[in-house]
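Slide 14.
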Amino acid sequence: MKAIKNYMEYLVEMNLDHIAEGLGCCLCEKCRADITALALNHLPSKYVVSDEGEVFTKMSALQQQAEIDVTSAIMQAALVVSKNPRHTE
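Slide 15: predicted structure.
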């Protein structure tokens, strides 16, 4: 069976650290998970079949707008999570 991946999840994972660090957000395991989930809930799913590098080929046309949308979603999610962290530190 072929692996099905949500390309938006990949983009969030690739950009989360850089964006959240720039905002001074906590990146503990709970905060990372909360930011990721909240961001993904505000993004459209873009499922692709990931064999032979097709993931990147199929999404190249949408990549620029997707990255803008992902950046915005991560920033908004990071601000919400920073104001309402679930950790006890």
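Speaker note: Residues 4-83 form one domain.
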